[in-house]
């Protein structure tokens, strides 16, 4: 998650001024799947941010607090987010600022998180994608296979931790375990067959994914066939 989306200073020209100072907690994941040419977004975040503020006529006396957002996900509209505001001390100034954040700060936080969701979807849309699950790759066939079965190269592609045992019966996990399965067949420089599932699918339900790799004169042709995807 690009935390700069919610770290922009927020100053309100009313009876007080507050700004977000730090993202204390950012746990979760964001995954984009391409299914039959349609992009499906899955994101789920648990956030806690720190803020500080002061009354308009008390610039030298800053109060610190936090805001907890436990349910930023595709299942909840940004306008319906649960945002819990708290302050680090108890006094009249802190009470006023807490109320101020409830009335105005929550709206600004939701707006910034809405910008994150928009950016996630815009940045994830490729220039073009193929519904026939066929791609021409301008590298040699052996390099294509390595890019699909070597842990460091797969991590570079997925931009996250990967578990990968590239052998028959070996396990793999991608995107924080959201995608996982095992290798069924490995034919050097020709084919990879995997049992593949999403953690959101029915229990123990696997699809079969076959990558067929063919060397052409000036490129490598990769065909992907996936069967057994649940409705």
Write the SSE topology.
Elements: E1 16-35, E2 38-55, E3 63-73, E4 84-87, H1 92-124, E5 134-137, H2 141-149, H3 151-158, E6 163-164, E7 171-174, E8 179-187, E9 191-198, E10 207-215, E11 220-227
Antiparallel strand pairs: 1-2, 2-3, 3-4, 5-11, 6-7, 7-8, 8-9, 9-10, 10-11
Helix pairs in contact: 2-3
What report would you give on this structure?
Belongs to the AHA1 family. It comes from Timema podura (Walking stick). This is Activator of Hsp90 ATPase AHSA1-like N-terminal domain-containing protein. It is a single chain. This protein has about 230 residues and is of the alpha+beta class. Helices cover about 20% and strands about 40% of the residues. It contains 3 helices and 11 strands, in the order ββββαβααββββββ. It has helices at about 90-125, 140-150, 150-160; strands at about 15-35, 40-55, 65-75, 85, 135, 165, 170-175, 180-185, 190-200, 205-215, 220-225. The strands form 2 sheets. The chain has a 7-stranded antiparallel sheet, covered by helices on one side. The longest helix has about 35 residues, at about 90-125. The model is unreliable at about 1-15 and about 125-130 (pLDDT under 50).
């Amino acid at each position: 998650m690009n935390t700069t989306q919610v770290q922009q200073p927020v100053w309100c020209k009313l009876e007080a001024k507050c700004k977000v100072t730090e993202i204390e907690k950012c746990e979760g994941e964001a995954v984009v799947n391409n299914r039959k040419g349609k992009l499906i977004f899955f994101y789920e975040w648990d956030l806690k941010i720190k803020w500080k503020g002061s009354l308009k006529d008390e610039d030298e006396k800053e109060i610190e607090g936090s805001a907890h957002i436990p349910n930023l996900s595709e299942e909840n509209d940004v306008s319906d987010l649960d945002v819990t505001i708290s302050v680090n001390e108890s006094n009249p100034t802190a009470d006023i600022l807490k109320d101020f954040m409830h009335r105005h700060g929550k709206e600004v936080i939701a707006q910034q998180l809405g910008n994150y969701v928009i950016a996630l979807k815009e940045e994830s849309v490729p220039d073009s994608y193929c519904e026939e699950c066929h791609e021409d790759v301008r590298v040699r066939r052996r390099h294509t296979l390595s890019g699909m079965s070597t842990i460091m190269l797969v991590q570079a592609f997925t931009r996250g931790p990967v578990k990968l045992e590239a052998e028959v019966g070996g396990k793999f996990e991608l995107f924080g375990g959201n995608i996982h399965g095992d290798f069924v067949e490995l034919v050097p420089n020709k084919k990879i067959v995997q049992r593949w599932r999403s953690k959101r699918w029915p229990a123990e339900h696997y699809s079969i994914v076959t990558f067929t790799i063919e060397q052409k004169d000036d490129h490598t042709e990769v065909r992907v066939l996936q069967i057994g995807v649940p409705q």
